[in-house]
Write a structure and sequence with these properties.
The chain folds into two domains: 21-319, Beta-lactamase (3-Layer(aba) Sandwich); 326-415, D-Ala-D-Ala carboxypeptidase, C-terminal domain (Peptidoglycan synthesis regulatory factor (PBP3), Domain 2). The strands form five sheets. The chain has a six-stranded mixed sheet with strand order 14-16-17-12-11-15, with no helix packed on it. It is built from twelve helices and 17 strands. The protein is of the alpha+beta class. Helix content is 34%, strand content 21%.
C-alpha cells in the first residue's frame, strides 16, 4: 500500500555503515531497465529543482500529479491547486485520520497487546510494521508503527483497542471528518486499503492534517525519520524507518529540517500519494499530491516526492507570510472640511493584517477601500475612528482593519459660520431671529419713549395747577395731593369757615 521499499538502516546509526547510494542507485537503474518491458516501467533521471533566482509567485512549478494543493497553514491562503476538490482514493494517508482519532481518545502511555484477529484484515501486499500476535506495545509506539513505516497491522490493532471493534472506530473517523467540515470524505477502514466507498479530496485532507498537527505528539512521530522500538514478547528491539524520501538525507529530494510531518500512501487505484507539512523561516506550508505515477527514477524515487519538493520550495522561495499591515501604517487620507489645520488627515491602521503574499510585496502594492464616503467635518480628535477598510492585493482580499485619524484637526469658526449660513433653511432661521430681535427692540424703545413723554406731560400739568388761581380767590389743589384738613364734611361746610379757621387760633 505504501511505497514497496527494502529495509533501510537508520540515519546516523553508528552500528551500521553509511548506505552505498551510488552502488544501489546503479543496481536499481539496471533492475528497473530490465523489468521495464514486463512491468511497464522506465528509469527516469532525477528531476532538477528550479533555480531560486527564477522562483516567482506567478510561475508555479510543473506538477505531474493529477491532484495537488499547496496552502499556507497560518493564513489558509491557497498558493497552488489542481483539482483539489476531486474525489480521490487516499490510500495510506487515511492513517492521518486514524492517528487523530487515537490521539483524541487514548492515553499514549497505555499498553496494548496484539491479537490474532487484528491480522485477519491484512492483504498479502499490505505494508506492515512487522507486528506479531501476542506482543505488547504502548499506544505511542503503535502510532509510530502506523505512521513511520505505514503499518496496516498497527492500524487494525489501534482501531480495535480504541474503538472496541474496527467498525465502531471507523464510525469515529467519519464523525470526526464531518466535524472538521470535510464534505467529500468517507472512510471504510482505518488503513486505506482500496474500497470504492473509501474516498476523500485534497482540500479535505488538509483539514484533517491540520487537526492532527494540532496534537503535539503527531508531528513528533510523523516527522521522525526513524523510531526505536523496545523488545517485546515476539520481536527484538528494532528501528522503524520512514517511507518519506523528503526526510531521507541521501535522497535527491531531501529537505532537511524543513519537514514537520509527512505521510505517504499507495495503492494501484490511488496511485502515489503524499501529504507533507513543512516550515522554513517562520513560514508554514502544507502540501498534498494524489494519484501520481508509480514510475521510479534512477534513485528509486517517484514523481509524488518531486512534485511535493518543487511545490514546497516554490512556496518558500516565491511567497512570504507576515504582518503586511502593522498598527500605525498610513493606509489612506480623508478629506476634512471646516478645519483651520488643513484639508486632509491621514487614516492610519488601528490593528494589523497578516497575509501570504508574493515575496517583495510592499504597502505600495496594496489597494485600500475608502474609509469614508466623501469627506468629514472638523473638529476631529486624534485617534478618532473612521471605521474599517478592506486591504487587497489585486483581486484578492487580504483582510479588513480599522483605521483612525493620525492627528487632531481643529475647527475654523469663520468657515463653520459661512458653511452654516450657506444652508437656505439656516439662513431663513437667522433672518427670522434677527427680525424678531429688531421688532422686540423697536417695541421696547417705543414703549420707553411713550412713558417718558407721559411723565413729562404730567409734570407740566402739575406745575400749572399749582400756580393758577381758582374761583373765588381760592388756590387749586394739585390732583392727587393730600388734603390738609380733616374729614371731607368739614371742608364741605363752608369755604369761609375753613378759611377763617386758620386765623382764629393763634
Amino acid at each position: 500500500m505504501n511505497d514497496p521499499r527494502s529495509p533501510r538502516r537508520p540515519m546516523n546509526d553508528p552500528r551500521s555503515p553509511r548506505r552505498p547510494w551510488p552502488l544501489l542507485a546503479a543496481l536499481a537503474c539496471a533492475l528497473t531497465l530490465s523489468l521495464g518491458a514486463v512491468a511497464g516501467l522506465s528509469a527516469l533521471p532525477a528531476r532538477a529543482l528550479a533555480d531560486d533566482a527564477t522562483l516567482s509567485a506567478d510561475r508555479a512549478p510543473q506538477v505531474s500529479s493529477p491532484v495537488a494543493l499547496l496552502q499556507d497553514r497560518d493564513t489558509g491562503t491557497v498558493l497552488y491547486e489542481k483539482d483539489a476538490d476531486a474525489r480521490r482514493y487516499p490510500a495510506s494517508i487515511t492513517k492521518v485520520m486514524t492517528a487523530l482519532v487515537v490521539l483524541e481518545h487514548a492515553d499514549l502511555d497505555d499498553s496494548v497487546t496484539t491479537q490474532e484477529s487484528d491480522f485477519d484484515y491484512l492483504t498479502p501486499d499490505s505494508s506492515t510494521a512487522g507486528l506479531r500476535a501476542g506482543e505488547t506495545l504502548t499506544v505511542r509506539d503503535l502510532l509510530a508503527c502506523l505512521l513511520i513505516p505505514s503499518g496496516n497491522d498497527a492500524a487494525y490493532v489501534l482501531a480495535r483497542a480504541v474503538g472496541g471493534d474496527v467498525a465502531s472506530f471507523v464510525e469515529l473517523m467519519n464523525e470526526r471528518a464531518e466535524e472538521l467540515g470535510c464534505t467529500g470524505t468517507h472512510f471504510v477502514n482505518p488503513c486505506g486499503l482500496h474500497d470504492d466507498n473509501h474516498y476523500t479530496t485534497a482540500r479535505d485532507l488538509v483539514k484533517i492534517f491540520d487537526a492532527a498537527l494540532a496534537q503535539p505528539e503527531f508531528s513528533k512521530i510523523a516527522g521522525s525519520a526513524t523510531w526505536d522500538l523496545p523488545a517485546t514478547e515476539q520481536n527484538p528491539a528494532r528501528t522503524l524507518t520512514t517511507t518519506d524520501f523528503l526526510s531521507e538525507e541521501d535522497s535527491p529530494v531531501f529537505m532537511g529540517d524543513a519537514i514537520v510531518a509527512s505521510k505517504t500512501g499507495y495503492t494501484d487505484d490511488a496511485g502515489k500519494c503524499l501529504i507533507t507539512a513543512a516550515s522554513r523561516d517562520g513560514m508554514n506550508l502544507v502540501g498534498v499530491v494524489l494519484g501520481a505515477s508509480n514510475v521510479l527514477d534512477a534513485h528509486g524515487v517517484t514523481e509524488n516526492f518531486y512534485d511535493m519538493r518543487d511545490l514546497l520550495e516554490w512556496g518558500f522561495g516565491a511567497w512570504q507570510t507576515g504582518e503586511i499591515v502593522a498598527p500605525g501604517d498610513a493606509l489612506a487620507t480623508v478629506d476634512v472640511e471646516l478645519s483651520s489645520t488643513g484639508d486632509e488627515v491621514a487614516a492610519v491602521s488601528a490593528g494589523s493584517i497578516t497575509a501570504t503574499v508574493p515575496r517583495g510585496t510592499t504597502l505600495e502594492d496594496l489597494t485600500v477601500s475608502a474609509p469614508v464616503e466623501g469627506s468629514v467635518q472638523a473638529p476631529i480628535e486624534q485617534g478618532q475612528s473612521f471605521g474599517d477598510v478592506t486591504v487587497s492585493l489585486g483581486e484578492r482580499s487580504l483582510g479588513t482593519v480599522g483605521v483612525q485619524a493620525a492627528s487632531a484637526m481643529e475647527l475654523s469658526v469663520p468657515d463653520f459660520v459661512l458653511w452654516w449660513l450657506s444652508d437656505p433653511v439656516h439662513a431663513i432661521i437667522v433672518v427670522v431671529i434677527v427680525a424678531a430681535v429688531l421688532v422686540t427692540v423697536g417695541l421696547a424703545a417705543s414703549s420707553s419713549s411713550r412713558r417718558r413723554r407721559r411723565g413729562r406731560y404730567e409734570i407740566a400739568v402739575g406745575q400749572r395747577r399749582r400756580v393758577a388761581p381758582g374761583a373765588g380767590g381760592q388756590r387749586l389743589e394739585t390732583p392727587g395731593a393730600p388734603r390738609r384738613h380733616g374729614a371731607p364734611g368739614r371742608h364741605a361746610a363752608s369755604g369761609r369757615h375753613a378759611a377763617s379757621g386758620r386765623h382764629t387760633r393763634r
